[in-house]
Amino acid sequence: MKKITLFLIISLFIFSTSVLAITAEEIIQHRDDNEFIKTARIESTMIINNRGRKLEKSMVSLIEGDNGLTEFINPMDRGTKFLKRDDNLWMFFPDAEDVVKLSGHMLERGMMGSDFSYKDMMESEKYLELYNFELIGEEEYQGRECYKIEATKVEGAEVSYYKRISWIDKERFIGLKEELYAESGRLLKEIVVTRTEEIQGRWYPMESTMENKLRENTSTTFIINSIEFNPEIPEGTFSLESLQ
Amino acid sequence: MKFLLTLAGRNLFRNKMRTIVSLFAIAIAVMVVIFARGLIIGMLDSSYSLYIQYDSGHLKVIDETYDQKEKLLSLRHPVDGFEGRGVLPMVEKIESIEGINIVIPRLKFGAMASPGDEIIRMLGWGVDPDKELEFTDIKSNFVRGRMVEPNKREIVLGSGLLNKVNKSVGDTLTIVYNNSFDSFKGSTFEIVGEIDHYLPLINERLFYIPLDQAQRILIMENSATEILIKADSMNEADEIKPKIEQIINNNDKRGKYIVQTWDEANPMLKLFNVAEYIYNVIYILLIILAAVVVINTMVMIVKERTQEIGMMRALGLRSKEILTLFIIEGSFLGIVGSFFGAIFGGMLTKYLSVHGIDYTQAVEGMMEEFFMNPVLYPVYNLENVIFGFLLGSIVTALTCIIPARRAAKLEPHDALRNI
């Protein structure tokens, strides 16, 4: 009888842990469900602190899958537009006659002088397709229980950062902090989410601050003033003609 | 004395081959000195002139912090005039100082063009077009079109850069850049001129736009990144510097500006200065090397003519006269050798000062770093030829004293012992 009881206890334990244990991929899948955007209209502000100087840039973005169109609306940059189509980025400037295509190293530069690179802003694939994930621990961060997950680039995938370590809220499945590393192991950037909100049933980071660790005394805070998921986007929005 | 001169002449013609070899050595050394000096002066003058035109002027006024950030083309530390009242009144005020010929503002900034998938990095200069033409030799390097005009959205580029962006005069070019508020911007200009210049900076990287247009697109109204000043000559820079500093101190209490002379702005040019001294020492050493041949000839002559010297001393020739005799012989070699060296050196320098020596292949990599004309034109002038002639004659005459003294010291009985 004792043996049967012990067997039952052990079986129950094994069964319960295998049911309750969540894999790193599942955590990321949950996070992607929250943070990955299929279609959205976002009004946002970027506050750039660069060696004592503070600059504010406001923009409206339309996103649909791999495509995105951003128009700056702050007085200094009014009329400047970015068009992202797949992996390509074009810019329109009110003072220029031609549309300018950005490519290569240009995309790794800080967008409009910020700590976010153009590539950071262009990433639209689901992380699950780009990285191998490993749950490396559980930690409390900003008073919230978090999974700590290490993501290493899938061989052959084209990504800006070789490794990412993320702190993901256990309850809300939203990233609260992320460290971005080069292949050499050097910390390149750190992004900290300072405000999250539940919108249309999903948790979304509304305010985050990026620090480029390769630059001194700079940081960029990205604030989402409003976000609308799955809006109607007129046909032709993401065409080169719409830029001009 | 006439007797000594005749004797020296006869002695020199006793062994013609030996005399010719000595003359040849001196002549070659003098020729090399004249040519090398002409070449070095030509090279340094050309480099000084390029640095002054395209980098530092005779004097330069910049913001003190800009000095460390010039390479980054920072727009955060501009020259915005006295108490921020605009760069042009400041230019006019400095131009009114006696001894100053021309003062120009330049607004330098980084830009890019993106023809196709390529990124072409460029260097933009916002300039006062008329003054820029007066300040530099750029006017003679236009191969097509003309210089930009104020208040027009016009741009002038080097031939190499035009090739890279795949454009030509008459087309439009869109450049992208960060303005002074770090906003990424793009602007389109009409290409009105093409420059073909041997400096890669100008040919392959630089473009000119009117100063007012640069100020507009970079949002730097009334500002420049530097003011360049030309005096009557580069030697007057040190004298004029305190006058400019005084005017700045009297009109601007912010203490943000510094005035740099050409050699302060370019530590490289200080090295050039030192190099000039070193070269002068090298010329003297070169002549001494040739004079060693003469010393050797003279020592051999003294050795050969020991008995003869003894005889002359026994016949009443004084030691001083023996010394004079040998100095005359040595000086003759020095003067005649230097004369021919000066003639041929002068001719060679004169010829190359017109036709130049093309170093293009050899200095290709260096040209990005240094400002130099890849076709070197040695400087021909009479002063240089006379310098070579005198240096050859004097150094040879002085070195002849050693064997001449040896001959003069010979006692008649010692000299005659071997008869």
Textual characterization of the structure:
Chain A is α+β, with helices and mostly antiparallel strands. Chain A has a single domain, classed as Lipoprotein localisation LolA/LolB/LppX (outer membrane lipoprotein receptor (LolB), chain A), CATH 2.50.20. Helix content of chain A is 16%, strand content 47%. Chain A has four helices and 13 strands. A 13-stranded antiparallel sheet of chain A has the order 6-5-4-3-2-1-13-12-11-10-9-8-7, with helices on one face. Chain A starts with a helix and ends with a helix. By secondary structure, chain B is of the alpha+beta class. Chain B folds into two domains: 2-51 and 269-416, no CATH class; 65-255, no CATH class. In chain B, 55% of the residues lie in helices and 18% in strands. Chain B is built from 15 helices and twelve strands. The longest helix of chain B is centred in the first third of the chain and has 41 residues, at 16-56. The two termini of chain B are 28 Å apart. The chains are: A alpha+beta (244), B alpha+beta (419). The interface between A and B is medium-sized, with 25 and 20 residues.
Summarize the structure.
The complex is a heterodimer of chains A (244) and B (419). With 244 residues, chain A is of the alpha+beta class. Chain A contains four helices and 13 strands.
**Ends distance of chain A:** 81 Å
SS class of chain A: alpha+beta
Strand order of the largest sheet of chain A: 6-5-4-3-2-1-13-12-11-10-9-8-7
Radius of gyration of chain A equals 21 Å
Largest β-sheet summary of chain A? 13 strands, antiparallel
The helix count of chain A comes to 4
**Counted beta strands of chain B:** 12
Beta content of chain A comes to over 45%
| Shape field of chain B | elongated
Which overall shape of chain A is indicated by the principal axes computed on the Cα atoms?
globular
Low-confidence stretches of chain B: none
Please give the most extensive interface between any two protein chains, plus how many residues each contributes. A-B, 25 and 20 residues
Proportion of strand residues of chain B: 15-25%
